[in-house]
UniProtKB/TrEMBL annotation:
It comes from the Bacteria. NCBIfam families: oxido_YhdH (TIGR02823). CDD domains: MDR_yhdh. SMART domains: PKS_ER. It comes from Colwellia ponticola. GO terms for molecular function: acryloyl-CoA reductase (NADPH) activity. This is Oxidoreductase. Pfam families: ADH_N (PF08240), ADH_zinc_N (PF00107). Residues 9-323 form the Enoyl reductase (ER) domain.
Length: 327
C-alpha cells in the first residue's frame, strides 16, 4: 500500500484527495521507484484543480516529475537502490505520476540522479529548472553567449522564469526580467537580474518589428508577449519558447525572422531524448550551488498541495514548490 494524491472525475466534477492505494493500482512499467520528492508545477496545478483537461484518464495520480530510489527493477539499466529522477513522458497525465509514495514507470523515462545533488535538491530544480536549462542550451547551440548582449526572461517570477534568471546570471549573462509582480523586484534582483521591466510592455498587441532590445530571450508566456519579444530581438538573435501562460496563439509576422534573422526555438521538456536530459541535468549539477537550489523552493506535504495548487494558478506562489510525498 502507498499514499498518493488522487484526482477523479464524475458528473459532479473533479475531486482531489489523499488516498491509500494498493501497489496493483500503479501503471505498467519495468521499474518500481520509492518516491522521495515530487514537485508542484503549473501543469500539476491544472490537473489537481481541473482548470484544464490535462489528465487523459481517471482516476489519475498527478505529478509530472519525481525523484526517488529504485525498489524493484526488471531493467538492466537500473538496480535496486539506484537514485533516479524523471521529468515528463506523460507521467501525471496518462501514466500515474509522482505525487505518490510509489511510481512504476518505463526505464527509458528515467535517468540516474547526478551524484552532486540530493533528491531534495533535484526536485527543488524539478521540471522548471530542467526546462530553463534546456532553453539556455538551445540559445547557446544557436550561438548566443554572454558577450552577445542582454537576455530577456518573461514570466520571471514563475518556476521556469526564476531558474532561467538564476542560471543565466550564474553563467555570466546580463539578464532582464519581465514580470507583473511589482512586489517581487527584490526577489528577482537577488536571483541575478540586472534590469526589470513590467510585463505590460509586452503583453498587448504590438508592431511586426520593434526596437532591437535583446540578444536572446526565454519565453514561457506565448501569445502577444512572444510575438513582441520576437519583434524586439537584435539581428541574428534567438528566442527559446517553452510555455503558453498568456495563450497558445502567436499573433506575429514573419518580419523578425526574414528581416533580422531571428530564430524561434521550440523547447519541449516532455519527450526529450535521454542524451539531452542527461546533458541538462549534468550542467545543472555543475553550476547550481546546493544552497541556491534549496533557497528557491518551499517544501509542502501531499495534503497541502491541493490548496497550494489553487494559489499557484492565482499567481500567489513565487519560486518552486517541492512536495515531500512521505510527509
Amino acid at each position: 500500500m502507498f499514499n498518493c494524491l488522487l484526482v477523479d472525475k464524475d458528473d459532479n466534477g473533479y475531486r482531489t484527495s489523499v488516498k491509500e492505494l494498493p501497489d496493483e493500482s500503479l501503471s505498467e512499467g519495468n521499474v518500481l521507484v520509492k518516491v522521495l520528492y515530487s514537485t508542484l508545477n503549473y501543469k500539476d496545478a491544472l490537473a489537481i484543480t481541473g482548470k484544464a483537461p490535462v489528465i487523459r484518464s481517471f482516476p489519475m495520480i498527478p505529478g509530472i516529475d519525481f525523484c526517488g530510489v529504485v525498489e524493484h527493477s526488471e531493467s538492466e539499466e537500473f538496480q535496486v537502490g539506484d537514485k533516479v529522477l524523471l521529468n515528463g513522458f506523460g507521467v501525471g497525465e496518462k501514466h500515474k505520476g509522482g505525487l505518490s509514495q510509489k511510481a512504476k514507470v518505463n526505464s527509458d523515462w528515467l535517468i540516474p540522479l547526478p551524484s552532486a545533488i540530493s533528491p531534495l535538491q533535484a526536485m527543488s530544480i524539478g521540471t522548471a529548472g530542467y526546462t530553463a536549462m534546456l532553453c539556455i542550451l538551445a540559445l547557446e547551440k544557436n550561438g548566443i553567449t554572454p558577450a552577445s548582449g542582454k537576455i530577456l526572461v518573461t514570466g520571471a517570477t514563475g518556476g521556469v522564469g526564476s531558474f532561467a534568471v538564476k542560471l543565466l546570471s550564474l553563467m555570466g549573462y546580463d539578464v532582464v526580467a519581465s514580470t507583473g509582480s511589482s512586489d517581487q523586484h527584490d526577489y528577482l534582483y537577488d536571483l541575478g537580474a540586472t534590469e526589470i521591466i513590467d510585463r505590460a510592455e509586452l503583453s498587448a498587441p504590438g508592431k511586426p518589428l520593434m526596437k532591437e532590445r535583446w540578444a536572446g530571450a526565454i519565453d514561457s508566456i506565448g501569445s502577444h508577449t512572444l510575438a513582441n519579444v520576437c519583434a524586439s530581438i537584435q539581428y541574428g538573435g534567438a528566442v527559446a519558447a517553452c510555455g503558453l501562460a498568456q495563450g497558445m496563439d502567436l499573433p506575429a509576422s514573419v518580419a523578425p525572422f526574414i528581416l533580422r534573422g531571428v530564430s524561434l526555438l521550440g523547447v519541449d521538456s516532455v519527450m526529450r531524448p535521454r542524451a539531452d536530459r542527461v546533458a541538462a541535468w549534468k550542467k545543472l549539477a555543475e553550476i547550481l550551488p546546493a544552497t541556491e537550489m534549496e533557497s528557491i523552493a518551499k517544501v509542502i506535504s501531499l495534503a497541502e498541495s491541493i490548496d497550494v495548487a489553487e494559489q499557484l494558478l492565482n499567481g500567489d506562489v513565487t519560486g518552486r514548490v517541492v512536495v515531500d510525498v512521505n510527509k
